[in-house]
Automatic annotation (TrEMBL):
PANTHER family: PROTEIN SMF. One of its GO terms (biological process) is DNA-mediated transformation. InterPro entries: DprA, DrpA_SLOG. Pfam families: DNA_processg_A. This is DNA processing protein. It comes from the Bacteria. Belongs to the DprA/Smf family. It comes from Geotoga petraea. Residues 56-252 form the Smf/DprA SLOG domain. Signal peptide: none annotated.
Length: 326
């Protein structure tokens, strides 16, 4: 079964992600569902061709992120624009209200700058999401619309910046407008991709609390910024802390939680070549071939250096990709 078959099952026959996974794993042919399957597939193909500035990743592709395979409802189709190597970096989601206070704006920007070695995952909405993306060195935006639909429209410049320098994802077919139920649903992807979720400001019924709930369901840590109890947008974060979320009481505490001072000290003590390798790995250039290319060195020499960093406990290798572990 090819990618177009999968999209047709999803878009025309409204099969769920898990139903499609089951159909494919059982080897059921799509033409068993309807006699006019091929005609409907042609209709889907025409719709897909209306927009061309994107690529498609399926659940069965090698580059599909393992973090999503481990959740109960993994998206079988991901439309994307940008750098898939960001899947292989350390990721943290930063989310919050669409109407942050000045305190929330400042805290969000400061938190993201402290976490400069991480890829920041968020939803490209107004407010905290946008501030997170704009202040991040590496970022992934997960949309609640089709990959080619910019929402809100005022984030057009941000959309194009992330398209060029980061990664944009959507499980919705190109051209799909923003519907109310789609945004909470996509939050499971934000939470699943991230090792931790940080909520900066959130009202009582904020979508950010849905992201936090997904993170907890996936066994991930949730952090929250404490707020003034009299503020509308503090209720959600204070409620999370009351129920066990880790409070970010200062930026120094945030550094301690992420072992950031120790990480930077360990890097400072490394030889110059090792520092360059680690810098490349941080930026998603994390295969021996890419490191060899960027450093203009023979791959056998690079493999020796990578092995030394592995022995020292600085990096680990999985499926040919290297990640930092300190």
């Amino acid at each position: 079964m090819n990618t177009l078959d999968i999209i047709t099952l999803k878009e025309v026959y409204k099969k769920t992600n898990n139903e499609i996974i089951s159909i494919i794993e059982k080897g059921i042919r799509p033409n068993l569902f309807e006699k006019d399957f091929e005609n409907k597939k042609k209709f889907i193909y025409k719709r897909l061709k209306q927009s061309s500035n994107y690529s498609i990743l399926t659940y069965w592709d090698e580059d599909y992120p393992e973090e999503l395979k481990n959740i109960a409802d993994p998206p079988v189709i991901l439309y994307y624009i940008g750098n898939l190597d960001l899947f292989n970096t350390k990721k943290v989601s930063v989310v919050g209200t669409r109407k942050p206070s000045q305190y929330g704006k400042n805290m969000c920007a400061d938190i993201v700058k402290v976490l400069e070695d991480y890829t920041i995952v968020s939803g490209m909405a107004y407010g905290i999401d946008s501030i997170s993306h704009r202040n991040a060195k590496k970022t992934i935006a997960v949309l609640g619309t089709g990959i080619d639909v910019i929402f809100p429209k005022t984030n057009e410049d941000l959309y194009h910046k992330i398209s060029k320098d980061g990664l944009i994802l959507s499980e919705y077919m190109p051209g799909t407008p923003g519907m109310k139920h789609q945004f909470p649903y996509r939050n499971r992807i934000i939470a699943a991709l991230s090792e931790k979720t940080i909520v900066v400001e959130a009202a009582k019924r904020s979508g950010s609390l849905i992201t936090a709930r997904y993170a907890l369901e996936f066994g991930k840590d949730v952090l929250a910024v404490p707020g003034d109890v009299s503020r509308f947008n503090s209720y959600g974060t204070n409620f999370l802390i009351y129920n066990g979320a880790i409070p970010i009481i200062s930026l120094e505490v945030l550094k301690e939680i992420f072992n950031i001072n120790e990480m930077r000290m360990n890097i400072d003590n490394l030889p110059e070549k090792s520092k360059k390798i680690i810098s490349l790995i941080k930026n998603g250039e994390n295969t021996a071939e890419k490191i060899s290319y960027f450093l203009n060195e023979d791959i056998s020499t690079i493999l020796t250096s990578l092995m030394e960093l592995e022995i020292e406990g600085k990096i680990r290798q999985e499926n040919g990709c290297y990640n930092l572990i300190f």
